[in-house]
Amino acid sequence: MIDETVTRGIIEHALTTQQPEFGQFFLAKLLQLDIRYENEVCHVALPVVPHLYNPQGSLHGGVIAVAMDISMGHLIHHVSGRGGSTIEMKVQFLRPIQQGVLRFEGRFVKRGRQLAFMQSQAFNVDDKEVAVATATWMMPSNG
């Protein structure tokens, strides 16, 4: 069941604290993402909460895909100082998630001047891989 008071609080917090910048934009705030960097890896934590469930009672795959996309895009911004653009992304969902915090790791597979091939992995609280995404990104231009 969705706790309306908790959900309204999350939405209100996202509305009042969001900023038009990486890590602070509305969707990141709404999903309560914790975004950190270590070397050339972007770590994203996503709390699994009932208002993000699909009708089957597990975390909606679209929410997982969004967090994976953010882990890769924020890494590009972190290393280049500018945002890139997702050209294509493929997600494979390996197991359903119903509780806990998902941990995502976005990283470069191969980085060029114009394109980057990237990967994001999602892990549950037991450190089991629950989803993997591969993507092609347009790197930001220098001018």
From TrEMBL:
Superkingdom of this entry's organism?
Answer: Bacteria
Q: Where is the Thioesterase domain?
A: 56-131
Any GO molecular function:
fatty acyl-CoA hydrolase activity
What PANTHER family does the database record attribute to this sequence?
ACYL-COENZYME A THIOESTERASE 13 (PTHR21660:SF1), THIOESTERASE SUPERFAMILY MEMBER-RELATED (PTHR21660)
Query: Which CDD domains does the record match to this protein?
Result: PaaI_thioesterase (cd03443)
State whether keyword Iron applies: no
Q: Which Gene3D superfamilies match?
A: Hotdog Thioesterase
Q: Which family does it belong to?
A: Belongs to the thioesterase PaaI family.
Keyword set, alphabetical order: Hydrolase
What is this protein's name? PaaI family thioesterase
What is the organism of origin for this protein?
Answer: Vreelandella nanhaiensis
InterPro entries referenced in this protein's UniProt entry, alphabetically: ACOT13 (IPR039298), HotDog_dom_sf (IPR029069), PAAI_dom (IPR003736), Thioestr_dom (IPR006683)
